[in-house]
Design a protein that fits this description.
The chain is built from 7 helices and 7 strands. The chain is an alpha/beta fold and 223 residues long. It has a domain of 153 residues: Glutaredoxin, CATH 3.40.30.10. It has a 7-stranded mixed β-sheet with strand order 2-1-5-4-3-6-7. Strand 3, helix 2 and strand 4 form a beta-alpha-beta unit.
Amino acid sequence: MNNSALTFWLVVAALAAGGYGAFKWRQVQQAQELGGVSEISLPPLEEFELTERSGKPFRSADMKGKVWVATFFFSTCPGSCARLNANIKQLSSQEAFRDVTWVSVTVDPDTDTLPVLRKYAESFNADPERWLFCRGEFDYVKRLSQEVLRVGGVSYKGHNDYAVIVDKAGEIAGMFNASSTRDSLAAEKTIAECLAAPWPPASAKSTPAGGAEPKTEKPAEAA
């Protein structure tokens, strides 16, 4: 290799090394900058509150003793939302499920104002007492999907198609793909079982506070 060629490759190697060094330096600098920012730590959500299309609050705490099913959607969805909500419409219209509350939560609160939600609900002839359309701040809705409903998959104008069945105790009883007619039909059994469960549970009725079994007094014998 002649001297000019050797010089050329040495220059290339030096530039590459310099570029890589600059890249790693910037990575370290960014890490230090991020490390200097104090993180905001929020306690996990256990209960939540949203605003229903009527303007009234929807509180999960008020649902104890009731069966409800939650889904995510947005009104301008060009994809699966139409199928998803058509299946919810079919389920919610069944007489056997008249005591179930259906809760649809928008992932696009900027667009889906209360008037927009009301108009969207009307397109499905949604019963205002049994099929609720709710909104909240997007970051709050995302936390709700992850920390309370445990379904995740929520991004701005993005969601998965799973419906979450919540039983009378406020526990998740199951999930199903609400955009699938077959899965929605299969979910009817789980919903029916949740409705049939006693409330309060039989154990709560029979066992007093403190866990002691109830005592019965033997009637006094007549003298």
